[in-house]
Amino acid sequence: MGSGKWIAGALGWAMFGPIGGILGYYFVSRIERLVESAGVYGEEQSWNQGQRNSFLMSLLVLSAAVIKADGKTTSQELAALRTFFSRNFGPQAGNEAEEIVKEVLSKDINLYEVCGQIRSCMDYSQRLQLYHYLVSLGACDGLVQSELDVLEVIASYIGLSKAEADSIFAQFRPSN
After folding, report:
1. Which phi and psi angles does 71 have, rounded to 5°?
2. Alpha helices in the chain (DSSP H)
């Protein structure tokens, strides 16, 4: 344990420069403290925890990309983000995720690099679940064309088929 924050800091630096490095280090430090206090894993699982932390940072960066695609950040989007992270990673993680996303919203996001990391670390079904979450996040305040464009790029970069992406979109379109 402990190396995850340095890995995230290095990845953040490589992807987003010095601010990205600081955010990566900060975020993973907070996640590691949460996990430690919950007693979730031992030393033999620290490598897996580093992968998990990288995944969480990528998830937050992609969430920020979807949220900022329409040029505004709504309370519905932040509530959906908070709920998702609270439900999946614990109550405190929801608030921390929101704080981090608010910081990432002001940064330029290289979707190709972030999605490449997701594609290399997750199998197809996991990427489908991730994409479902991202579409639901965009849809919570109504999907607009700019969000659809970003979501289509993400689908392509994480290696989803057009048919699968369209199928997920269909779940969030209003029925006639």
Report:
1. 85, 5
2. 3-38, 46-68, 75-89, 91-104, 111-121, 124-139, 145-157, 162-170
